[in-house]
Amino acid sequence: MLTAATDIEVLARFGRALADPIRCRVLLALRDAPAYPADLADALGVSRPRLSNHLACLRDCGLVVTVPDGRRTRYELADERLGDALDSLRTAVLAVETGRTCAEASEKGCC
């Protein structure tokens, strides 16, 4: 039985999903339209096994779902509002110091 996640759990799952560039690309692709794993792998230029691992992570985070389609399985965003959330995050203005990367900030214990 599924239980409602707290706000913190939801944000943490979203953060984990967005922590990897390939998962970000998958989410943006699925924002545009549902897709089959083989097609996603080809479109993103990643191996099918690698994509499979990322899709499993996104499923575990609750951001994507599988939809049986005959002998194939299609992936889509778990909720259409996730597409709006991705657009909002993608277009948000970040306060980033010139010449400083998030990795450098992480070394100092911030990110």
Comma- or semicolon-separated keywords:
globular; Arc Repressor Mutant, subunit A; 111 residues; mainly alpha
The biggest beta sheet is recorded as: 2 strands, antiparallel
Specify the CATH homologous superfamily.
Answer: Winged helix-like DNA-binding domain superfamily/Winged helix DNA-binding domain
Number of helices: 6
SSE string, helices as H and strands as E = HHHHEEHH
Shape: globular
Find the CATH topology. Answer: Arc Repressor Mutant, subunit A
CATH class category label: Mainly Alpha
Structural class category: mainly alpha
**Count of domains:** 1
Q: Tell me what portion of residues adopts beta-strand conformation.
A: 5-15%
Query: Separation of termini?
Result: 34 Å
Q: What's the total number of strands?
A: 2
- Kindly state the percentage of residues in helix: 55-70%
**Average pLDDT for all residues:** 88
Radius of gyration: 16 Å
Strand order of the largest sheet: 1-2
Q: Return residue spans where pLDDT drops below 50 for at least 5 consecutive residues.
A: none
